Amino acid sequence: VELTGDGQRVVFSTAQDDDSTIVGELWSVRIDGTSLVQLNPGPAFWPGDFRLAPDGSRVLYRQSSELVSARVDGAGFRILTSGASQSGGFLISDDSVFCVFASTEGGQWSLRLDRLDGTQPFELLAPMPTPITPLELVDGSTSAVLLIGGKLYSLATPNALVLIGGDAVYTGHVLGFPIVLQTPDGRELLYRDDTGAGVLELFAGRLDGSAPPRKLSLPLAGERDVQSFRLAVDGRVLYHADQFVNDQFALYGVPLD
Q1: Which of 50, 82, 85, 235 could lock onto 61 through a cystine, CB 3.0 to 4.6 A?
Q2: What is the largest CA-CA distance in the chain?
Q3: How far is CA 10 from CA 6, 74, 198, in A?
Q4: In this structure, are residues 153 and 132 in contact, taking their beta carbons and an 8 Å threshold?
Q5: Which residues pair with residue 153 across a beta bridge?
Q6: What is the pTM of this model?
Q7: Residue 166: left if φ>0, alpha if ψ -120 to 50, beta else—which one?
């Protein structure tokens, strides 16, 4: 369930099991219960797999293998993938104008930028055989943070990947906690990575790739991972882990610098 920024409409998904597949529907309704409209044109919507634009005007969702942009008032929709299948995540710019998403065709993956109204498709990253997962947009821009082959990259200029870091970056997450997180100054990205010891540790990597990643978490014993992390208002990074392998998870705070 998502509420538009002006508080006037609610966007929500429903699902029905017809014994062979889950049939999903996407709906929008005014906050007073009037003007209920269905936003997806077919029965193959993936329940819950949608994202509302910050200004509340449009919603992006997956319809089978396609990426669809629909007006929340039900006035129309556009299919953005036009031939290629949408795979992985999709991101919306802060100004609600553009979206960034990965698509695949013939075993090749590419990254695309398009206006939410479908009028300006543009290829950000040429086709490659390795899956691409867009994770984050750099605040206030259409520069993307990507996961490719277990490593994190930033992409500010088409086809100019910059390595942030990572060996086996972990994209699973505890509900309500981020996979990656930008620092307040917009210079670094926080993430969990297994560098070969079989333990997920917490790192900070430069978005411009100008320095090697820094490990932030304290040494972890055994196979105890950093479970989740957040930024505190005082500038510290808080993370949750069983630091000493005593089956007692605790919250730790480390400075960013």
Answers
A1: 50
A2: 57
A3: 10, 12, 43
A4: no
A5: 146, 163
A6: 0.82
A7: left
Q: Cα separations (Å) of 211 from 47, 125, 163? A: 41, 24, 10
Per-residue pLDDT of the chain (257 residues; tens, 9 = 90+): 889 988 899 999 887 766 556 677 889 999 999 999 998 876 666 656 789 999 999 999 887 778 889 999 999 898 888 666 666 678 999 999 999 998 888 889 999 999 999 888 899 999 999 999 999 898 777 789 999 998 999 998 999 999 999 888 887 765 567 789 999 888 999 999 987 777 888 999 999 999 999 999 887 765 578 888 999 988 899 998 876 555 667 888 999 88
Residue 70 CA to residue 37 CA, distance in Å, equals 11
Give me 220's structure tokens.
């972890």
Instruction: Count other Cβ atoms within 10 Å, centred on residue 118.
Output: 17
Q: Report the chain's C-alpha Rg in angstroms.
A: 20
Q: How distant is the alpha carbon of residue 69 from its chain centre?
A: 17
Please, which residues have CB within 8 angstroms of residue 82's CB and are 6 or more apart in sequence?
Answer: 121
Q: Specify whether the CB–CB gap between 120 and 82 falls below 8 A.
A: no
Tally of residues, the chain: 257
CA distance linking residue 203 with residue 247, whole number of Å: 23
